[in-house]
Amino acid sequence: MTEDQAIMCSMAGRVAEEMGSEAGWKRIRTGADSTRYHESGHAVVSRHFGKKTYCIEIFSNGGRTCYSPNSKSGGSDQEHIALFVDLKNHFGELVDLVELECKTENLLRANWRAVQRLAEALEINGGYLNAEQIAEILEKANREIKPAPGSKSDEQKHC
Ligand SMILES: [Zn+2]
Question: What is the reported pTM?
Answer without folding.
Answer: 0.91
